[in-house]
């Protein structure tokens, strides 16, 4: 079946449907990972977005039963050059097209993803609509022009837990403020024997005090960070009271709680091959990214905050740390392993911080 992607600036791409059928709108973004499509499809931070993969063959190792980042996919659409129908891997449970159909995600293959990515890179992230079957092109462009922007949508509420739940462990008790957390964050804490108390985004400082965790981790999540004012207000209240660690959206929330600013990037960072430099050690790590917003470096000036990490592609802020309070955060994903486990040390730093060994 034919499928079409229309961008808000009137650009059209045609291809074939390979997942669910129908119509869906979202913000069109590109990801440069050569692998990791299963994690991308199930990362709740992509809620509200249509993802274009730059790597030309997607689905070749299938979908397995172990690597899900969430119980379901929140992605709005998936755009590839070639979708592989015959996966080959000992862990492959099912085909990518079947997975998309089951999850109700529209997939479109046969698209010139290089041209599409170059377009988004030149003109920036845009809204778009995917439709399968016979479509009216002019109408589709109209819909892309009129669909909501990512900012202003309450996407975190769609993906975060509504009720608190706890996972036992004999180590430190970590409260995870869930804005749409990837499962791997929980796995990394459990590997370190942490007890994890997963709480909704609207948790209050009083409720946190009742639970009395050893540390608080603010998770990744979808949308514009300014769209979670309650979590920002709660974070502001607990700064200095508990060791605090933020990942991605959690990093942005932390920066906003401290009084800094965030801004929308032209086309963001999405991929598993971003070089990030730890300014304290001078070491460079290849890291996994998924963000369209960034902490404004200028707005950190004069604050008791050190920039600990930068992205070597564009020098944007990738990590912050308070000069004397137990608080740090990273913009990239230390829980993901785009190869070796080298960003694991970030979780070890959080463990040290909870033990009172602030470096
Ligand atoms: N992975 C994330 O947490 C993404 C954070 C935020 N939604 C952004 O796009 O910048």
From TrEMBL:
Domain Carbamoyl-phosphate synthase small subunit N-terminal: 1-131
One function term, GO molecular function aspect: ATP binding
SMART domains: CPSase_sm_chain
A single GO BP: 'de novo' pyrimidine nucleobase biosynthetic process
Pathway: Pyrimidine metabolism; UMP biosynthesis via de novo pathway; (S)-dihydroorotate from bicarbonate: step 1/3; Amino-acid biosynthesis; L-arginine biosynthesis; carbamoyl phosphate from bicarbonate: step 1/1
InterPro entries, sorted: Anth_synth/Amidotransfase, CarbamoylP_synth_ssu, CarbamoylP_synth_ssu_N, CarbP_synth_ssu_N_sf, Class_I_gatase-like, CPSase_GATase1, GATASE
Keywords attached to this entry: Amino-acid biosynthesis, Arginine biosynthesis, ATP-binding, Glutamine amidotransferase, Ligase, Nucleotide-binding, Pyrimidine biosynthesis
Segments of this protein annotated with the region CPSase: 1-172
EC class of the enzyme, as a word: ligase
UniProt binding sites for L-glutamine: 45, 221, 223, 249, 252, 290, 292-293
Family matches, as SUPFAM superfamilies: Carbamoyl phosphate synthetase, small subunit N-terminal domain, Class I glutamine amidotransferase-like
Catalysis performed (reactions): hydrogencarbonate + L-glutamine + 2 ATP + H2O = carbamoyl phosphate + L-glutamate + 2 ADP + phosphate + 2 H(+); L-glutamine + H2O = L-glutamate + NH4(+)
E.C. number(s) listed in UniProt: 6.3.5.5
Entry-linked Pfam families: CPSase_sm_chain, GATase
Alphabetized Gene3D superfamilies for the sequence: 3.40.50.880, Carbamoyl-phosphate synthase small subunit, N-terminal domain
Active-site residues annotated for this sequence: 248, 333, 335
Superkingdom, taxonomy of origin: Bacteria
Function recorded in the entry: Small subunit of the glutamine-dependent carbamoyl phosphate synthetase (CPSase). CPSase catalyzes the formation of carbamoyl phosphate from the ammonia moiety of glutamine, carbonate, and phosphate donated by ATP, constituting the first step of 2 biosynthetic pathways, one leading to arginine and/or urea and the other to pyrimidine nucleotides. The small subunit (glutamine amidotransferase) binds and cleaves glutamine to supply the large subunit with the substrate ammonia.
Self-association state and partner proteins as the record states: Composed of two chains; the small (or glutamine) chain promotes the hydrolysis of glutamine to ammonia, which is used by the large (or ammonia) chain to synthesize carbamoyl phosphate. Tetramer of heterodimers (alpha,beta)4.
Family label: Belongs to the CarA family.
Name used for this protein in its record: Carbamoyl phosphate synthase small chain
Organism taxonomic ancestry: Bacteria, Bacillati, Bacillota, Clostridia, Eubacteriales
